[in-house]
């Protein structure tokens, strides 16, 4: 499946008193990876919302291996796990500049109709972009 990678420079405010990235910030890093993965195939979250679809996270799993620290340049690799149905699943690998794995993770998101609040199937336009 398709993979896209972004880089993020760790800011001082993202670290804790031990000088490492606070664990809660990794959820934002994988979100940034996911948003850019979609943008890379030609779909934005904004356009999905304008078409009446929202994508809430229903599962988030992170496995920390090594810490990231202030001013590190990390890479977030985002991979679509399988073709989406009502849910879309991503896997993540976060690396440091030496390409050492810092964190593994995964998310599951549901396609939800904004008017009804009910789950719906993945929009055809997104499936077409994934297949390209």
UniProtKB/TrEMBL annotation:
Belongs to the 4-hydroxybenzoyl-CoA thioesterase family. This is Acyl-CoA thioesterase. Pfam families: 4HBT_2 (PF13279). It comes from Sinomicrobium weinanense. GO terms for molecular function: fatty acyl-CoA hydrolase activity. CDD domains: 4HBT. PROSITE patterns: 4HBCOA_THIOESTERASE. InterPro entries: 4-hydroxybenzoyl-CoA_TE, HB-CoA_thioesterase_AS, HotDog_dom_sf, YbgC/YbaW. Keywords: Hydrolase. NCBIfam families: YbgC/FadM family acyl-CoA thioesterase (TIGR00051).
């Amino acid at each position: 499946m398709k993979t896209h990678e972004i880089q993020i420079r760790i800011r001082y405010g993202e670290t804790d008193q031990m000088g490492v990235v606070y664990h809660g910030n990794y959820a934002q890093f994988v979100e940034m990876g996911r948003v850019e993965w979609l943008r890379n195939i030609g779909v934005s979250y904004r356009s999905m919302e304008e078409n009446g679809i929202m994508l809430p996270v229903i599962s988030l799993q992170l496995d920390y291996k090594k810490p990231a620290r202030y001013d590190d340049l990390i890479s977030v690799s985002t991979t679509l796990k399988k073709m989406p149905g009502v849910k879309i699943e991503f896997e993540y690998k976060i690396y440091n500049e030496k390409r050492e794995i810092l964190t593994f993770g995964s998310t599951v998101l549901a396609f939800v109709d904004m008017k009804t609040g009910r789950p719906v199937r993945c929009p055809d336009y997104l499936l077409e972009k994934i297949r390209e």
